[in-house]
TrEMBL record:
It comes from the Bacteria. PROSITE patterns: TAT (PS51318). It holds the Pfam family PhoD. InterPro entries: Metallo-depent_PP-like, PhoD-like_MPP, PhoD-like_sf, PhoD_N, Phospholipid_Metab_Enz, TAT_signal. Residues 144-495 form the PhoD-like phosphatase metallophosphatase domain. Residues 46-108 form the Phospholipase D N-terminal domain. This is Phosphodiesterase/alkaline phosphatase D. PANTHER family: PHOD-LIKE PHOSPHATASE METALLOPHOSPHATASE DOMAIN-CONTAINING PROTEIN (PTHR43606:SF1), PHOSPHATASE, PUTATIVE (AFU_ORTHOLOGUE AFUA_6G08710)-RELATED (PTHR43606).
Length: 547
């Protein structure tokens, strides 16, 4: 056969991988053959568990064809139950979730997932497992990081893929906090990239990652791309995730109402439109509900990213959303409060912290508190504003939060975050700060997990941060091959003693600190409503600022 006149399509490496990522089977079929039987449902992207607390969680998967999700749940006593999930079709990119309730606290649970098609045929099965939080012993551990497939560094098969995910899995944590930038919708990948030292980085590709994401198909494809990686799929099949979002799920440094001035966006530049598509893809592909744990995201109903996950006697996790309610990126020096969390979320966070009886309250933030993160020459992307004086702009919300933590006697607060593409341990103390109405606390920064490495950023002195440790890139945008990829690890023993560490791409410990639980007793409910608590904290901060 003359290949120039062949009716069979050429199969490129990219097309083949795209078919694999979508769960398709590439086959050459002779012309005229009819009546082919459709394939049984395959699991194109493995399975994920999310938001697993003491007695509930979520399981996620994706089918290659329309079908109904089936879940078999078995606990460590051998008791099994069969759950029927939603119908997965093109309206949700064939993704589906099932909420798991009535779980045994402190137990290992095994979950088998499959899909059954309209003809009643069950397809491929996959099995994973997770451990629920424990009310009695309370010992637990977790890892966190951020920034997946950024700055042009995607899945490199020559290096074994996204290997830092394997290093995290090797610590056998009870759960994983992805602190945001779960994808890089604004960062196209190329097949090869020449690194600074002349080595060639080779990316696996699918079509959706080769240009900036503007339509829903491209946003979905970005999430699906990461799940091609074996290391990612292995971790997610055994370690439940608490997924957060930051900016790159949509586009760099975005805020509501923005219109992008970037010629790469040739079909849509309104951030609100892009963010709506990005949010839909995020909820379709990440194993989380709406924040209340009762219903899932729908195109009509939206969904809430900030939520509380209770992991038992010694740990509650408060996942915040510092993107949805954010104000315009300005110099961040306004005398008035400008939104970052927004009033409703700040109210929620103070209420949840006050109600927590856990030894440790981990606030999972998608932006650091005391680092200067510029957006261009004049504007600021984050909390800090490079002014070490009294709280201004977005800093005022943080001042209200820290003041409320102090005056309500809330102990054991630890902030974990990512975003800046290097790792650091920051200690905040009012004796070093311009704003003094708070108790000392730690903020630990990790990441990237598979992206370019940068740093360090300048400190903003308003809340008195001091760098106790940091490890940064050898050069800006450094390739993951250099090994400067970072994650954090926290272990809490049955006595409530917390050991935090920062680790590199191979899991080697770079910095570690043991923290004792607070000696004060449980928080006593004063009977003051949360609304009053927020108003009191706001009034106290206003008085301190002379407003």
């Amino acid at each position: 056969m003359n290949p120039r006149h062949s009716t069979l399509p050429a199969v490129s490496r990219r097309t083949l991988l795209a078919g694999t990522a979508a769960g398709a089977t590439t086959a050459l079929v002779a012309p005229g053959v009819a009546g082919l039987t459709t394939a049984r449902p395959e699991l194109t992207s493995g399975l994920q568990f999310g938001d697993v607390g003491t007695d509930a969680g979520i399981v996620w998967s994706r089918s290659s064809v329309p079908g109904r999700m089936l879940v078999t749940l078995t606990d460590d006593t051998g008791r099994s139950r069969r759950l029927e999930g939603p119908w997965a079709d093109a309206s949700r990119d064939h993704t589906a979730k099932v909420q798991l309730t009535g779980l045994r606290p402190g137990a290992r649970h095994e979950v088998t997932v499959s899909f059954v098609d309209k003809e009643g045929r069950e397809g491929e099965r996959a099995t994973g497992s997770f451990t629920t939080g424990d009310h009695t012993d309370g010992a637990t551990s977790f890892v966190w990081t951020g920034d997946t497939a950024g700055q042009g560094w995607g899945i490199n098969p020559d290096l074994g893929g996204m290997r830092t995910y394997a290093a995290m899995a090797a610590t056998e944590p009870d759960f994983f906090i992805h602190s945001g930038d779960t994808i890089y919708a604004d960062g196209p990948l190329e097949e090869t990239v020449v690194e600074a030292d002349g080595q060639v980085w080779r990316n696996l590709l699918i079509d959706e990652v080769t240009e900036v994401a503007q339509d829903l198909r491209q946003f979905r494809g970005r999430h699906r791309y990461n799940l091609v990686d074996d290391n990612v799929r292995h971790l997610y099949s055994r370690v439940p995730v608490i997924a957060q979002w930051d900016d790159h799920e949509t586009t760099n440094n975005w805020y509501p109402g923005e219109v992008i001035d970037d010629e790469r966006y040739d079909r849509e530049r309104r951030v609100d439109v892009l963010a709506s598509r990005a949010r839909r893809a995020f909820f379709e592909y990440q194993p989380l509900a709406d924040g209340h744990g009762r219903k899932f995201w729908t195109p009509a109903g939206g969904g809430r990213i900030h939520r509380t996950i209770r992991r038992g006697r010694h740990l509650d996790v408060f996942s915040v959303d510092m993107r949805t309610h954010k104000g315009t990126n300005t110099a961040n020096t306004e005398d008035r409060t400008t939104p970052l969390l927004g009033r409703s979320q700040l109210n929620w966070l103070i209420r949840e912290l006050r109600g927590s009886r856990a030894t440790w309250k981990v606030i999972a933030a998608d932006l650091p508190l005391g680092l200067v993160v510029p957006d261009g020459e004049l504007a600021q992307e984050g909390v800090g504003n490079a002014d070490p004086g009294r709280p201004l702009g977005r800093e005022q919300e943080i001042a209200v939060l820290l003041s409320a933590i102090k005056h309500h006697g809330i102990s054991g607060v630890l902030f974990v975050t990512a975003d800046v593409h290097y790792c650091a341990a920051h200690h905040y103390d009012p004796s070093r700060a311009a704003f003094k109405d708070f108790e000392p606390f730690w903020e630990l920064v990790a990441g990237p997990v598979n992206a370019g490495t940068f740093g360090p950023n300048d400190l903003d002195g308003t809340f008195g941060p001091r760098v106790e440790f940091q490890k940064v890139a050898g050069e800006p945008g450094e390739s993951p091959r250099a090994g400067n990829q970072f994650f954090g690890h926290v272990d809490i023993d049955s006595d409530g003693v917390l050991t935090a560490s920062l680790r590199d791409a191979e899991g080697a410990v770079l910095w570690s600190r043991q923290m004792q639980p607070a000696e004060t007793g449980p928080i006593i409910d004063t009977g003051v409503s949360t609304g009053s608590a927020l108003r009191t904290a706001r009034a106290r901060v206003d008085a301190l600022l002379g407003v």
